[in-house]
Amino acid sequence: MEYNKLVALIQDRKSFLCVGLDTDPNKIPAGISLLDFNKSIIDATRDYCVAYKPNLAFYECLGKEGWEILEETVQYIGNDHFTIADAKRGDIGNTSSYYAKTFYETYGFDSVTVAPYMGRDSVEPFLQNPGKWAIVLALTSNQGAYDFQTFSDGKSALFEKVLQTVSTWGTPQNTMFVVGATKAELLEQVRKIVPDHFLLVPGVGAQGGSLEEVIKFGRNKDIGLLINASRSILYASSDPSTFAAAAAKEAKNLQLDMARITGL
Amino acid sequence: MEYNKLVALIQDRKSFLCVGLDTDPNKIPAGISLLDFNKSIIDATRDYCVAYKPNLAFYECLGKEGWEILEETVQYIGNDHFTIADAKRGDIGNTSSYYAKTFYETYGFDSVTVAPYMGRDSVEPFLQNPGKWAIVLALTSNQGAYDFQTFSDGKSALFEKVLQTVSTWGTPQNTMFVVGATKAELLEQVRKIVPDHFLLVPGVGAQGGSLEEVIKFGRNKDIGLLINASRSILYASSDPSTFAAAAAKEAKNLQLDMARITGL
Prior knowledge:
Chain A has helices spanning 3-13, 34-45, 56-60, 64-77, 93-106, 120-123, 145-148, 158-166, 187-193, 211-218, 231-234, 243-262, and strands at residues 17-21, 51-54, 82-89, 111-114, 133-139, 175-179, 198-201, 225-229. The first copy, chain A, has 264 residues and is of the alpha/beta class. Chain A has a single domain, classed as TIM Barrel (Alpha-Beta Barrel), CATH 3.20.20.70. Chain A is globular. Chain A starts with a helix and ends with a helix.
């Protein structure tokens, strides 16, 4: 999906919500298949979000059946939502090329999350397909982010070095960065380094990040944010007859908050 | 696989060779299936190596058929070789738990390669199963290693900080580190920080690293090295009638060199 289309979707739906499809066999209502659960969640939230983000771990652990569910889920989403393979890949160049092929061609995703540890030749293969995006980890939402991402040379922390460096390898049309909502106070620093890039922001909802603060410190002229919620939407109700309606309500509330706070 | 069994295999076979199964549909001889290719390579190299390392990218890109080939390949390897899922995973805790389950339980691997960028809670789920191992990226063999892995606070480079920190999360019985053969001169520094851990060393062969130097600077009292070769073995010949014999010869030469240099 091209940058302009994503921006237009955000304007049309007055939303920059991404629904994380962390579909957990142990948490979905009894008696419903994973694929049917995903389809119900997608139907319930379609009008309130602009992106879906399947978390690959939850599909891989099921073996080949999981990959079938993933494939059918991506097809079911269609072309009017931005799709993110939350896969945290990254390897030497010829290997990263195969990962890019996997997610862009085999499964048809618009984007893949990428870990930057291995550097330029591990990221570049994800930047070479028009309309496809690398979403590179910068400052993640978990406690472990402080182990290495804030390691500093006295001038920059590692996550700032990643933003500075990776932003020169691509453009705001093919690169986004992951910045966790639980560290919203650092979004101001992030925006000084990458004013024009989209940021994928996990951590609102179950992980406790504040939507108001993320928008305050993170928005740019095109909004420039995809704010992800997973568990708070997917598992809003465990009742097989009401989970979809509960998910719709959660997603709609987030959409309304987004529209209100930004004036979209 | 337990530490002691791995050390015993190394002693018995006078080898610490790992064969990387980067099985590339575009490079294998015409007229042979990927699974049959893997089986032929395994049969040809079994006596000369102690480990096999399928590179997940090459299987994932084939969709669900690729995962079937992976599953059958791991089964075919059996229990007398250490198996490594070269997957470079790492995500927030509940997600990493699912990746650990995928590779340890669904596919039965002994170990997974893990990217350390997201810190402690992204690595620990890989350390909680007896006989299973996290192999954490420290200093990789590619050019991009210099982008972030050598970023320094003036006392330590990031890869040293990773070695120092991650080695306190587990033990030499459940944690290894990736250190590229193309940076053999840094192995001395690595060994000062982690004298007792196994190191997985890619980059000998096609990438140009020196076996002699890796052994000189990297070995410890139990050898403590798994040296990987992929392309130089897999694609030693592209002739369908001789590729297996050519792979066996390459692997045997490496084994003989290892025995000679170490006096095993």
